[in-house]
Amino acid sequence: MSALESAESSSPIVTRAVAAGLRGEYAENYRLPAWQKAFLLGLGALPQGAARFALSRFQRFSGLPAHALDDFRIETLIGERLADYDGLEGPFPAVTVGAALGGATAYLSLAVGGPFLPQAFVVSLKGGAPDGDVRRYLNRSLALARRIAAADPRLFTIQHYDPIHDGWLTRYVNHLRFKLLDLPPAYAEFIQQRLKPGGAVIFLEGGAQWLRYRLGERSVFQVGGWGGLPPEEFLEGSERLRAYARRAGLKSSDWKLDDFPLERGPESEWGSEPGLGEALNAFCQQEGFRFVRLSLAHPHDFSRLAFAAADKMLAKEGRQPAGTLIEMFSQFDATAALQTGLLPLWLVFNTQDSLEFLNAMRPRFPTGKPVFFSPLATFSLTPDLVAWQDWQSALDGLTWTNIGARPSHYPADARAVVRWVHPLRAWAARNHHPIRSRLTAEELQELLIFDSQRK
After folding, report:
1. Do 107 and 346 form a contact (C-beta atoms < 8 A)?
2. In a domain, 329, yes or no
3. Predicted local confidence at residue 377, as pLDDT
4. Would you tell me which of 27, 220, 297, 329 could form a disulfide with 20, CB atoms 3.0–4.6 Å apart?
5. Domain co-membership, 59 together with 159
6. Is 297 helix (H, G, I), strand (E, B) or coil?
7. What is the full DSSP assignment across 190-259?
8. Is residue 260 helix, strand or coil?
9. CA 89 and chain centroid, separation
């Protein structure tokens, strides 16, 4: 049976990366069959405009039919993620649970030496809004989202429409996200069986906020997503968004819904709904585990903590960092950093907010050491996209290697989707020096306090 969860979702990419890191193996973030790799490599030989055109239209063949969720149970998606840890019996000193903040979550989980269990899951369904009509997109899965939420009080449903950053996807598929509001029995059993007695459960609570429309007691609709554009702009409109819509061939750039209440709440991808953390705390008190809540307002705050955690582990071994590894979104390789002593810096996306974070963190890069930079292939020329020249300026003066999208094809480099990790792993093979030390949950918590003061 094929997986229900979307291949581009953060949760499976992170859980597979953590499982591979615990095994000392490399993970393939993008699980592509041979024919898709050949197709992408072929597109990579063409100008980037051709790649954007072809890949966007290729999405019309992806996504699940709505009837695939006729008998939906969240246990199916939970089971898929727990299966990633088959063969890893533990006992582990810690288990992390909560927001799947890309590479940041993977690095933090591996820093404490245990698995990660996600709070959120995403399913991609057939049918989007080719013309940019927000109501058309909403109606694709509105009834389904409401029905699933009403049937299971442990779930919160989010229909997520980002016609800018995910524009090449949302023309042809619609994204339905599920978030846990309680501790599922399968997670409780996993923790009981694989966490050592008295071990730590670390809850990663993402505090990112966004505007969203309330559709029901446990159902919302979010327009837009994290990047260099504020949530208000997606709803109020702007000349740059109207210009983008014209260039993208969208008939509409009016994404406001006046017939639903508008509220501010946890962001769809990087925010945590309340409930799960409280349930984990109660569970830990009952079972004798230590509960540690790491609550941070911005996704990059978790990345800053992961960077500091890697530095701390190296210091415990009396070592200097081997260099810096700058990665974006799903284009990260946690095993490479752990096997070589690179300091990982995970960026949310290739947008202006990520550039600002990179510039703020650059003074903390180890002097005179190599830097690997993995510019993301997104296939969308968004208004908040960082120009290639600006990335170059941010890295000016460093000895850096590009392991992502080529300057000639950025950000629509189909070849990079297949080959981005190859030069990094080749360097890692020549510079194999694994980090052996790990951090306790309390050390991570202390590091958070110290690093927040340093910031």
Report:
1. yes
2. yes
3. 87
4. 27
5. yes
6. coil
7. HHHHHEEEEEEEEEEEEEEEEEEEEEETTEEEEES-SSSS-HHHHHH--HHHHHHHHHHT-S------TT
8. coil
9. 26
Residue 418, burial from CB neighbour count under 10 angstroms (0-12, 13-18, 19+): buried
Q: State residue 1's pLDDT score.
A: 44
pLDDT of residue 117: 98
Return averaged pLDDT per consecutive 10 residues of the chain, 455 residues in all: 78 97 93 83 73 58 85 96 96 98 97 98 95 95 97 97 92 95 98 98 98 98 96 95 92 92 98 98 98 97 98 97 97 96 97 98 97 91 95 97 92 88 95 97 90 62
**Number of domains, the chain:** 2
pLDDT for 56 equals 57
Sheet order of strands, 400-402 included? 342-347, 323-328, 371-373, 400-402
* Cα gap 428→372, rounded to integer Å: 11
Same domain? 213 vs 270: yes
Residue at 1 is within a domain: no
Please give the Cα distance from 25 to 10 (Å, whole number).
Answer: 19
Number of CB atoms found within 10 A of residue 349's CB: 23
Residue type at 41 in one-letter notation: L
Based on the fold, state whether residues 196 and 104 are members of the same structural domain. yes
Please state, in angstroms and rounded to a whole number, the distance separating the CA atoms of residues 204 and 409. 35
What is the per-residue DSSP string for 302-353?
HHHHHHHHHHHHHHHTT----EEEEEETTB--HHHHHHHTEEEEEES-SBHH
pTM (predicted TM-score): 0.95
Residue 85 and residue 189 in one domain: yes
The predicted structure's pLDDT at residue 50: 60
Co-location of 340 and 394 in the same domain: yes
User: Distances in Å between the alpha carbon of 225 and those of 64, 113, 212, 296?
Assistant: 22, 31, 11, 18
Tell me the two tokens of residue 88.
Answer: 């890893």
**Strands in 99-172 per DSSP E:** 116-118, 120-126, 155-161
Burial of 198 (0-12, 13-18, 19+ CB in 10 A): exposed
Calpha distance 337→303 (Å, rounded): 14
Q: How many CB atoms lie within 10 A of CB 28?
A: 12
| Tokens found for residue 119 | 């709070």
Is there a contact between 47 and 408 (Cβ–Cβ < 8 Å)?
no
- What are the beta bridge partners of residue 94? 200
Q: Last residue of some domain: 248, 270, 296?
A: 296
Instruction: Say yes or no: 30 and 166 in one domain.
Output: yes
Query: In this predicted structure, what is the pLDDT of residue 59?
Result: 58
Residue 48, pLDDT score: 66
Q: What is the DSSP letter of 398?
A: S
Strand residues in 272-406 grouped as ranges (E): 290-296, 323-328, 342-347, 371-373, 400-402
Identify the domain containing residue 155 by its residue range.
Answer: 10-296
